[in-house]
Amino acid sequence: MSDVTAVRLGIDLGTSHTVAMLAVEGRPPTPLIFDGSPLLPSGVWADPSGRLIVGRDALHAAQTDPAGFEPHPKRHIDEETMLLGAAQPATEAVIAAVLGHVAAEARRVAGRPVTAVVLTHPAAWAARRRQRLESAARTVFPEVTLVPEPIAAAGYVVHRAAARIPPGGRVVIYDFGAGTFDVSVVQAAPHGPRVVASEGLDDTGGTDVDAAVVELLARTYARRDPAAWQRLAAPVTRADRRARRTLWEGARTAKEVLSRTTSTVLHVPIVDEEAPLGREQLDQAARPILERTLVATRRVVAGAGGGAPAGVFLVGGASRVPLAASLLFQTLGVRPTLLDQPELVVAEGALYAAAGGPWAPPPPPAPGTAGPPGGRVPAAPVSGGTAPPVSAPSAPAAGGAGLSRQRAVTVTVAATGVLLVVLVASLGVHAAVRGGWPLPADPSPTPSISPGLDPCVVGVWKQRKYVIENTIDGVPTDFTGYDTGIDTYRADGTYEVVYTGSPFRATVLGDRWEHIVDGRITGHYRTADGELTASGTVATGTSRLLVNGEVDTSGSLTASADPSRYECRGDTLLIHGEFYGAELIRTGETP
C-alpha cells in the first residue's frame, strides 16, 4: 500500500475567474484562496521576455502595459497562439500558466504536490478543444480527468446539496458566470449522469450586467460632464485607466451588494460623486441580459423533452442576481434553487463527479438485508421550533418534483411574509432508489442491543452537514448547517439529539437568513426493515429565526415523531427526506 497521501484538485477554469477545490485524503474539500479570495482572475500578462504572470499580478501589470494582457484565455481555445505584447506564447502554455499557479498554491497549502486533477469544461466543447485543455493540464499535473461543467454541478447537487435525482429524472443546470452563460439538462442514467441538451452563450455573463450598470451611469454623467465621462469611457493616461478600472470594480460591487440589499451607492471617479443605485434599477439593467439566458433555457428544456424538470439549480456567481430566479420560475414553472456559494459549485462537484455518484442504481440488497419496499421514500422528521403567535400545522411544503428533501413543519409568519419550513431534528431518512440501498452486512458490533434495533444505527453521531429546504417569500430555499449537533442512539432503545446553536444559513433575495436551534430532544426509538420509529419525544430549548443578524421570530423548541428511513455506510449515516438531506459521522464514543 502506498504511504503517499492523495492530494486532488477540482478546477473550474472560468472565462473570467478560476476556482479550485482542494481535497486532501481524509479531509473534506476546501477552496483554495488567492490573495484573500477563492476567485483567481484567469487573466495572463506576458513581460517582454515572454514570462507569463497570472491572476491579480497580471491585472496589476496590465495597468502599465495593457497590450501584454489577455483577460480571457479560455476564449482563445481554438487558436494555436496568443499575442501578448511582444510575446506570442502557445495557447496551451497560457492555460498551463493559470493551472500552474493553482498547482503551486495547492502544494503550498497541502504541503505536498497534487496527485490528480479534475478539470471541467463546457458541455458543448468538441474533442479538439477538450484535447487542448487536457494537453495543457498534463504539463502541470500527473493525472488529469475532464468532466463537463453541468455533470460537475449535478455531482454537487446530489453530494452536497443533499438532493436526489431519481432514475431517469432530469434537472436544469443554469450556469451564469462572469463571462459566459451555459444551460444544460442533466439526466440520471443507469451508468451515471448524462447531458441531454446544452447551449452556451459566450457573449453573455455577469460582466454584461456590470456594463449595463455603467451604462446607467453614463446616461446621467455623460450629459452632465462630457469631458470627465470621456476620460472614463476612453482613457488615455495611466491615471484615467486606473479610474476606469475603479468605476467597473464599483459597478461589480454594487451588483453584488444589490443581491443582498435594496439600495447602495457607487462612487464615480473623476466626476467624484456618489451615485445612488437601487434594486429596481439593477433589475431594469439586467433584464435584457437575463432574457437572453431565458431564451436559451427554453430551447434547451424543449429540446431535451421529458416534460417539466425535477429541479432547476443556479450556479455561477452572477446567478445571485435576484431577478434571475424570479424570471426562471416564471419561465419554467419550477422554483429554482440557488446553491450555496454558487461560484464554487462546479469546482467542488468535479471531485464528486469524477469519483462516481449515487445517481446510478444501487447494488441489490445483500443476503439477510432489506431495503424499503418498492423504493418508496417516507419522510420522517422529529421537527418543530415554531414562533408564536402562529401554531405549526404538520404540512409538507412544495418542492421540486423528484428531489428528496424533507417533509417538515410549516409556519406562516404573517409579520414578515415568510413561509418557513422548520427542521430541528431527524431520526434518519433513506432516500431509496428502486428498492433502496442495502444496510451493511457487517455493522459495527454493539453490546447488549435490545431486540428491534439495527446495530448500525446504535452510536454517537456528529451532524457533519444538514441541508433543509425552507420556503421564504414563496421561494424554496436551502438552509445549510455544519456541525449543528450530536445524535445519540443507545442500545437500550433511547435516543437524544442535542443542538448546539450552530446556525443553518441561507441568502434569500439579498437577505442573510439564519435558523438557530439550541436545545435537545429525547425519546425512544425502534427499527424494522430499514425504518426507524420514534416515540415519547420530549423537547427542551429554543428556536430562533434571524434576518440580517436581527431576530425575526423565536419560540420554544417542539417535536413530533414520525417513521423514518435511514442508510448506514460504515461510519456514515445518510439522511434524505422529501425536503432535506444530511450526513452524520460516527464519533467513536460509546453511547
TrEMBL record:
It comes from the Bacteria. It holds the Pfam family HSP70. Gene3D superfamilies: 3.30.420.40, Actin, Chain A, domain 4 (3.90.640.10). GO terms for molecular function: ATP binding; ATP-dependent protein folding chaperone. Residues 358-399 are annotated as: Disordered. InterPro entries: ATPase_NBD, Hsp_70_fam. Residues 376-398 have a biased composition (Low complexity). Keywords: ATP-binding, Chaperone, Nucleotide-binding. Coiled coil: none annotated. PANTHER family: CELL SHAPE-DETERMINING PROTEIN MREB. This is Hsp70 protein. It comes from Catenuloplanes atrovinosus. The lineage of its organism: Bacteria, Bacillati, Actinomycetota, Actinomycetes, Micromonosporales.
